[in-house]
Design a protein that fits this description.
The chain has about 400 residues and is of the alpha/beta class. The protein has 19 helices and 13 strands.
Length: about 400
């Protein structure tokens, strides 16, 4: 009888007690909710990076609306997709999947406002919802100012620009509709995570949110480890841009114009890494400049060699969140330079030197500071050493520790 009782006890204990990170036991079942997965993009890349840390102690799953493409993801056996875009079907599917997989935590990545209609309608008994904002709070209002730039039809483009100038676009006329979406997100989430400490105040101000008890700061982790200081001596005369080639926010036309305005570039090269809808226009612009020291690299899966050789990483965006390329560049001792358009980037860059942030959108001042960095090697190397120090806070292990605290 005693043997039978011992057998039952040994059999049941693993089911009710799942110790953290021991043996094959799983501490939590975590479901990442995304718009599309897998693919190469900022949110997807961050998801894959943090997954390499979390998967050591947790069981991870991924749920998305779009799959593009499968061959870029090692976690596809754990990927699920909504059967339709109908909200009622999505609610039913998510409810069943959470029960089937015994999900402890849903990580609402993005967040994508469409999922408010889904998550806000389900009352989970034991599943927590943690929503991540992978952009600057108030981004919606800033983006609305530049929406006309994506319109190719000249008549519609002029009309959209007039609406923004006159203050009769939807963001100006109905700002509370946008704010209410984020207050709803805050309401059904157990925690709302922002990428920069300054973004807590920004969230409350932008969306008229009174309570801050659910707001938490966790930066995105770098997928690269900090390099030794030897990498500084290996730098070449290279400036890089890393990101999606689109006109609305990135404004690479400014970077090309600034580069062209620097008269004697002394053998320096500008390498633009990425792909996107602005590629054709960018090629045309560079062709008209008739310069042979700008290289369009295109999309690459491993940018580490470009970070290793680059002395400077440059952004000329109209608006930004917390730039992943800056976080990654720090690990390689690259000096970041940008217009001062992002509180998140300011939190990073000002730790190196405030004068690496240029007043928007003074291209002459930007060109002067870039030229100064290109001409002053001791200054570059001192800033590069500081970049390596600052970059330590974005290492996967340190950011992962913040995730442990969040999930615990």
């Amino acid at each position: 009888m005693i043997y039978k009782q011992c057998f039952i006890f040994v059999s049941i204990v693993p089911l009710i007690y799942r110790p953290y990170g021991k043996g094959n036991y799983i501490y939590m079942n975590i479901l990442f909710l995304l718009h599309s997965y897998p693919k190469i993009g900022g949110i997807e890349m961050v998801t894959s990076t943090i997954s390499t840390y979390l998967e050591r102690n947790h069981k991870l799953f991924y749920l998305a609306r779009i799959a593009v493409p499968f061959n870029q993801c090692g976690e596809c056996n754990s990927c699920y997709y909504f059967p339709s875009s109908n909200v009622k079907d999505e609610i039913s599917y998510l409810r069943k999947l959470v029960k089937q997989l015994s999900i402890d935590v849903i990580i609402n990545q993005g967040p994508f406002m469409h999922y408010n209609k889904v998550l806000g309608k389900i009352k989970f008994e034991r599943t927590r919802i943690i929503s991540f904002l992978h952009f600057m709070p108030g981004f919606d209002f800033e983006r609305a100012k530049h929406a006309w730039k994506y319109e190719h039809n000249p008549v519609k483009r002029l009309f959209k620009r007039f609406k923004i100038w006159a203050g009769i676009d939807s963001a100006h006329l109905f700002p509370d509709k946008i704010r209410s979406r984020y207050r709803e997100l805050y309401s059904f989430s157990d925690k709302v995570v922002v990428l920069s400490p300054s973004y807590i105040r920004t969230f409350m101000s932008a969306y008229h949110q009174q309570d801050s008890s659910k707001l938490v700061y966790i930066p995105n982790p770098s997928r690269f480890a900090i390099k030794s200081k030897d990498v500084i001596k290996e730098k070449k005369r290279v400036v890089i841009f890393v990101g999606r080639l689109e006109f609305e926010s990135k404004r690479l036309d400014r970077l090309v114009s600034i580069w062209h305005s620097i008269g004697n570039r002394m053998g320096w090269r500008l390498k633009i890494i990425g792909d996107g809808p602005y590629m054709a226009d960018l090629k045309s612009l560079i062709g008209r400049m008739q310069t042979d020291d700008i290289e369009l690299v295109g999309q690459v899966t491993d940018v580490s060699s470009y970070y290793s050789e680059a002395a400077i990483v440059a952004l000329t965006s109209s608006f930004e969140g917390l730039s992943l390329c800056f976080i990654e560049a720090l690990q390689f001792g690259c000096v970041p330079l940008s217009f001062d358009v992002s509180i998140g980037n300011r939190d990073i860059v000002s730790q190196l030197s405030p004068d690496l942030l240029i007043k928007p959108f003074d291209e002459q001042a930007y060109a002067s500071r870039l030229s100064e960095l290109m001409n002053d090697r001791p200054q570059r190397e001192a800033l590069a050493a500081k970049a390596l120090e600052v970059g330590e806070q974005y290492e996967l292990g340190k950011v992962g520790g913040l995730w442990d605290k969040l999930l615990g």
